[in-house]
Amino acid sequence: MEIEEKVQKVKAITQSWRAQGHKVAFVPTMGALHEGHLALVKKAREVADKTVVSIFVNPTQFAPHEDFASYPRTLEKDLEKLKAHSVDLVFVPTENEIYPYGNATWVDVEDYPAKGLEAFFRPHHFKGVATVVTKLFMIVKPDIAIFGEKDAQQLAVVNRIVKDLFLDIEIIPHPVVRENNGLALSSRNSYLSEQEKQKACALYEILKTTAKTLEAEKNFEKARAQAWLKAAEYSYLAIEYIEIVDPITFKPLHGNIYDSTYSCFAVIAAKIGSTRLIDALRIGG
């Protein structure tokens, strides 16, 4: 496994792979790797000849009041895990390597799917995400990139970037990986006490209620209302949003379901104690 910090070195390595006819898969991460990340790595190795993983805690997607400084950083453990999964190249750039001239150039999705929900509560988040993902794509130039569905709105934003900028990259979504109690795996789970981890599975229970109601009633308003009723059972959750959205535009869905092949996401964001968690559940499709 090669470990590189320099942009030009990574570009040279992946360029040589492509010249040899290898298909390259890419998994961008912010480190603090868990089994959810490793599931993406496993998928990458299944669909390509060479696998690249980046570890970079991107400062531009954090607001000043958010947890950039305290975000978990476990590089040595992360590298051990990636080596055990036979990753070919790990890109671990410094901030100056990704933003050598400051932040004068940005990539910003100004319409849906980068509106509402996460964008409302974290107004500059997707601008930072879109910018760093585009930079990483331009450095690695992968054939395939793997993203998890827990960050479903981010996944939709990345798909929009690839479409709008004519990037020749196939984006493969991966289902949410969960604890036995249903809690979606997340690096931020490390902020939770054991008691809070047990309570946090309530997010998944709310999403399952949403899905069950939607599949039974075939009506988005009824499913949304039932989700909020279910959420009221968990007084310790500070709910920011519960929504049912189109998986491509991320616009809220309304009315009745007329097509049995429908596909949508139920999504939720909530705080438990001081920790903010998000979750998503694909329904239908």
Summarize the structure.
This protein is an alpha/beta fold and 285 residues long.
CATH class of the largest domain: Alpha Beta
Record field, number of beta strands: 9
Please report which band the strand proportion falls in: under 5%, 5-15%, 15-25%, 25-35%, 35-45% or over 45%: 15-25%
What structural category do the secondary elements indicate? alpha/beta
Number of discrete helical segments: 10
Query: Considering DSSP H and I runs of 4 or more, what fraction of the residues is helical?
Result: 25-40%
Descriptive overview:
By secondary structure, this protein is an alpha/beta fold. It contains ten helices and nine strands. It has two domains: 2-174, Rossmann fold (3-Layer(aba) Sandwich); 191-284, Pantoate-beta-alanine ligase, C-terminal domain (Pantoate--beta-alanine Ligase, Chain: A,domain 2, 2-Layer Sandwich), CATH 3.30.1300. The two termini are 38 Å apart. Helix content is 38%, strand content 20%. The strands form two sheets. A six-stranded parallel β-sheet has the order 1-4-3-2-5-6, with helices on both faces. The mean pLDDT is 96.
Task: Summarize the SSE layout with pairings.
Elements: E1 2-4, H1 7-19, E2 24-29, H2 35-47, E3 50-55, H3 75-84, E4 89-91, H4 95-98, H5 118-121, H6 125-140, E5 144-148, H7 152-164, E6 170-174, H8 194-200, H9 202-217, H10 220-231, E7 237-245, E8 263-272, E9 275-284
Parallel strand pairs: 1-4, 2-3, 2-5, 3-4, 5-6
Antiparallel strand pairs: 7-8, 8-9
Helix pairs in contact: 6-7, 9-10
